[in-house]
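Exercise 7b. Backbone tokens:
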């Protein structure tokens, strides 16, 4: 019996340059099976380059990558079998129909034609594109192309999913469906790595977040930790003056909103327990609170604090 290789994704000391541009300068992280890991960073921070390296489509200059224990450099076949890759645009084959694209890719993965056709129909239904099954891909809207791209990534039932901006171009209903689908796939034990700029969405989708900046991984955080960190809350009350006096009595520094946020008071709290205790005290103390909620998403809070720390 062989040794059991650890599943999921790991990257250590990964670097990659294009000429003089150092796109990836030092990425270290893991993405375990059974969870959704978010890859978060500003434009140009190296996310797409990293995903291409993980998908075995680009070689790193230095560093080590493992996908379910396999090395993309020396075992690209094993990696490609394991990985479903959704790039940020659908790309090629505009004149093929949605079904033809999925069946062709399925066959490239070694599926029998009948099995590929059945799987294609199943996935088109899953991403609500059945009615476009026989339409050429070029007539699909941007959001529909994104959904077809997701179906293409899933055709061979991969155990590792690499998704580059999967929610981009999706309407709110489709975003919710994407979130539910990814949660279900993670529940089935798959490893999911998803890059996105829409942090509020990742709050509900991801279990863990890897923050990148300037080609380096700068922080890894679980959503649980992100939710319990010092965080801004926005509070509204009918009588703002009374609310501010109550906050003063609690020794909590606060900021009054202006412009569209007039009437709103912001206060920094150390997690949900402190928030619940404060809300109870305010209400029991007779303050007429009409709204009380985090002012930013948990991941956005971390993202902004990392950006603020930058030299
Ligand atoms: N093939 C290439 N040739 C030259 N430079 C490249 C190439 N691919 C990426 N780069 C550069 O590497 C850096 C990182 O790019 P990358 O696409 O990985 O960033 P990203 O984090 O995915 O950005 P975005 O959020 O805008 O999608 C950028 O400065 C980019 O211009």
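Sequence design result:
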């Amino acid at each position: 019996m062989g040794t059991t290789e650890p599943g999921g994704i790991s990257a250590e000391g990964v670097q990659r340059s294009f000429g003089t541009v150092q796109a990836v300068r030092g990425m270290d992280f893991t993405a375990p099976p059974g969870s959704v890991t978010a890859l978060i960073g500003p434009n140009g921070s190296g996310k797409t380059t990293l995903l291409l390296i993980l998908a075995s489509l680009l070689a790193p200059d230095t560093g080590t990558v493992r996908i379910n224990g396999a090395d993309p450099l020396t075992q690209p076949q094993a990696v490609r079998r394991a990985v479903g890759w959704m790039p940020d645009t659908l790309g090629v084959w505009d004149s093929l129909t949605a079904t033809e694209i999925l069946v062709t890719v399925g066959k490239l993965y070694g599926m029998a034609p009948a099995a590929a056709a059945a799987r294609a129909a199943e996935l088109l239904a899953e991403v609500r594109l059945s009615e476009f099954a026989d339409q050429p891909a070029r007539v699909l809207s941007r959001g529909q192309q994104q959904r077809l791209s997701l179906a293409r990534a899933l055709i061979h039932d991969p155990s590792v999913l690499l998704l580059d901006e999967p929610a981009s171009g999706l309407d709110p209903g489709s975003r919710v469906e994407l979130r539910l689908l990814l949660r279900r796939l993670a529940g089935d034990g798959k490893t999911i790595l998803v890059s996105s700029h829409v942090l509020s969405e990742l709050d509900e989708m991801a279990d863990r977040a890897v923050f990148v900046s300037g080609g380096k991984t700068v922080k890894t955080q679980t959503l649980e930790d992100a939710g319990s960190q010092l965080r801004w809350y926005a509070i509204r009350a009918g009588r703002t003056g009374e609310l501010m006096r109550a906050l003063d009595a609690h020794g909590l520094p606060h900021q009054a909103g202006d412009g569209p946020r007039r009437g709103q008071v912001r206060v920094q709290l150390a997690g949900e327990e402190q928030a619940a205790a404060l809300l109870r005290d305010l209400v029991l103390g007779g303050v007429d609170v009409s709204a009380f909620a985090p002012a930013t998403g948990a991941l956005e809070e971390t993202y902004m604090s990392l950006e603020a720390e930058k030299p």
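Instructor comment: The longest helix spans residues 172-187. Residues 1-5 have pLDDT under 50 and may be disordered.
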